[in-house]
């Protein structure tokens, strides 16, 4: 049967505002014979203040029972740093084994970039999503004293690295340029760096059509600014990928356009789609938030669920909308309405 069971976590700040527009465009894009069932989850700062809970087990189990999750944004200045990030967002990524954190970057015609000359930018970062320094493996000794020692140990397993590297090769193989760049820092982080490089090289022998190269992460940041057109698919660890994708957003029209998918490729768990931006409490409630990143995340969601033509229609609508922007301000809702109208045709 053609139906989509979608769990929706609007979250904090501008999250609910952009999610409303994302759902509007999703409904407009879906063929009439595909039924959309949504269930909303009250998770985030409000819930934490009210009950002290971030993600109760019952909610996690109920979320699992969906085809996909759409998330707005998590985080509020009234909640101590790390509580919602670890207790909700990262907990979901780990629990649902979202080992591919997919973050495409494209410089759409008409969008502003701080880069000189308008390079053609169209690459995708495959950021590992379940390991690295994000696992919480560390601790502190003599906390709060002048002799404090803190560790944050990056976890890298052959299993975890191979599966994400393989996914990145598959994606590179499917793209016209067929190019894959590994980004790490194996001149300093020799243990994890060599694990990544060895697996990258070994798996690469199965993909003779894919051209590969390697960059240290610091050098990669230079190329993101000076020669972003050199990139096609990039595979990297959780933290390098976090940093690089903010930079990627900054050179391709800003964080208001950056979409992401937290993917569990096997489909054992629902994949989760979210804008790369945060909850932006400073503009929450003002109608100034750009819902485009959420709308593009909805396109990733549709493609993941096998609705490629509808995903492409949404991307084309965004492209046309960006090209038609004349600088006059529009509200979150107006942008959503314009995109929904273009998708409907
Ligand atoms: C992101 C965010 C998260 C991350 C934070 C909020 C935990 O920055 O999705 O990029 O670091 O992954
Ligand atoms: Mn980030």
Automatic annotation (TrEMBL):
Q: Does the keyword Zinc-finger apply?
A: no
Task: Give the cofactor note.
Answer: Binds 1 Mg(2+) or Mn(2+) ion per subunit.
Q: Where is this site: Important for catalysis?
A: 134, 185
Molecular functions (GO terms): 3-isopropylmalate dehydrogenase activity; magnesium ion binding; NAD binding
Which Gene Ontology cellular-component terms appear in the entry?
A: cytoplasm
For binding Mg(2+), which residues are annotated in this chain's numbering? 218, 242, 246
Essential cofactor(s): Mg(2+); Mn(2+)
Task: Tell me where it mainly resides.
Answer: cytoplasm
BP-aspect Gene Ontology terms: L-leucine biosynthetic process
* NCBIfam families referenced in this protein's UniProt entry, alphabetically: PRK03437.1
Listed name of the protein = 3-isopropylmalate dehydrogenase
Q: Which gene encodes it?
A: leuB
